[in-house]
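Q: I have 196 residues here and want to know how they pack in 3D. Can you give me a structure?
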Amino acid sequence: VRSDGPTSCIGTQLGVAKRPNTVQRALLALVAVFMVPTLLAAIGTILYIYKEEQSRFQASLVETARSLSVVMDREFSRREAIARTLAASPALTQHDVAAFYDYARSVAPTRDSVVVLYDLSGAQLLNTRVPLGTPLPERSALVEERQERGLGIDDALISNLYLASQSQQPSFAVHVPVLREGRPIYYLALASFAAN
């Protein structure tokens, strides 16, 4: 017996209602099958590119640091040569501080650089940033630093950064002994503002 009654309609309606659900699920599964690997590949590509860029950036930093180190070494060597040339001045052999002051001012004519002459205790005898005869600090940290490091008699010292006594600006100095007959008679510093 065949019945086309309300039960059959409901069954048909329910069957039709189930089909779109099954089709939706199939479409979602199909989209997931294509999208998940694509999404994972995109994430992997982004991570790879990030790591490559990070490696290139680090390599660039290392190369920049090496280049800067070479430039700084050359500049310190140049300043040491100038300081040693100043230290060889005959005016210092004769202990003629006034004559040496004039000579040093010609080497460091601007306020950006300064020549400072110290006695063996570290007291400043002259400073080319100020007129000769101006009261100067009695003790220098450079001489103390030289003694603390136990440098040899002819060794140059490149200072740490310090505040210059006259200008109160961060500075550094190349510090050399003034030797006569193998003994130090003075210490000499060629200093510059760190900003230079």
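Q: Anything worth noting?
A: Strands lie at 113-118, 124-127, 157-158, 162-163, 170-180, 183-193. The first helix runs from residue 6 to 87.
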